[in-house]
Design brief:
There is one protein chain. By secondary structure, the chain is mainly alpha-helical. The chain folds into two domains: 1-34; 55-85 and 122-210, no CATH class. The protein is built from nine helices and two strands. It has helices at 3-31, 55-59, 70-73, 88-95, 104-115, 136-141, 147-150, 185-193, 207-210, and strands at residues 158-159, 173-174. A two-stranded parallel ribbon has the order 1-2. α4 crosses α5. The relative contact order is 0.11.
């Protein structure tokens, strides 16, 4: 076979192969909902979290909301450095009887994690620098309310990182509350310097209090 004919055949196979790849990629894009964001085929809203957990539905006090105490889920806040995250079994203990009204497909994900014996890989929202420490139990036992650091959490829906807000649905999903200043040492120092009921500084500002 002449070399020119072989080159033309290779060119045709290459073009055909590339066309097939792009066709498959386009099909996957359409079936996947057109890329990231928005709602999936079954109406599940993408939030950046593995499950769209609405804090206001659980902790809010409006009609139809459950008015749950924060420490019902964050069970170790008053006795440990970390506030704690409930186990999958704890979540399913409630939701085995509560399928969810607005997004039952999100509640169904809990059962999936339970059956696979996997923890829910929540995306952490509130975190201070690694070289500092924030012991929850000291602050809770000193009488601070969760909202003083985390904002009006009982009014927020699904928490996401600030740079992951979904603009088309930002009325549904919020990042950190504007009150949060945990990435700014001055915010913590200012709180420590506030006078208590006796007019004295309410907490030490010695470096070793947080940096140890």
């Amino acid at each position: 076979m002449p070399s020119g004919t072989r080159l033309r055949m290779k060119k045709h196979w290459l073009i055909g192969g590339l066309a097939g790849v792009f066709a498959l990629a386009g099909l996957a894009f359409v079936q996947g909902g057109g890329g990231e964001g928005g709602e999936g085929a079954e109406g599940a809203v993408e939030t950046g979290q593995p499950i769209a957990f609405p804090h206001n539905q659980h902790a809010g006090s409006e009609p139809g909301q459950n008015n749950m105490d924060c420490q019902f889920c964050h069970f170790s806040a008053e006795r440990s450095v970390d506030a704690g995250i409930p186990s999958v079994a704890s979540c399913w203990g409630c939701h085995v009887a509560i399928p969810g009204t607005n997004h039952p497909e999100e509640v169904a994900k809990i059962q999936g994690y339970l059956e696979r014996d996997e923890p829910i890989p929540w995306v952490r929202i509130y975190k201070i620098s690694d070289h500092a420490h924030f012991p929850h139990m000291r602050h809770v036992n000193a009488g601070l309310e969760c909202q003083e650091c985390h904002g009006e959490i009982q009014e927020m829906e699904v928490l996401t990182k600030p740079d992951e807000w979904w603009t088309p649905a930002k009325e549904l999903f919020f990042g950190q509350d504007p009150v949060w200043g945990g990435d700014n040492m001055g915010w913590c120092v200012e709180c420590h310097r506030r006078p208590d009921e006796n007019g004295e500084q309410q907490a030490s500002t010695d470096c070793a209090v947080c940096h140890y």
